[in-house]
Amino acid sequence: MARVLILGGTAEARALATALAGLPGVRPISSLAGRVAAPALPVGEVRIGGFGGAAGLTRWLATERIAAVVDATHPFAATISWSAAEAALATAIPILALRRPGWSQRPDDDWRRQPSVAAAAAALNSLPEWVFLTIGRTELAPFAGLDRHWFLIRSIEAPQPPLPARHEVLLARGPFSVRSEIELMRAHRIEVLVTKDSGGPLTEAKLVAARELRMPVLLVERPPVPDVPAVATVEQARDWVAALVGPPA
Ligand code: NAP
Question: Going by CATH, does the domain composed of 111-220 fall within 3.40.50?
Answer without folding.
Answer: yes
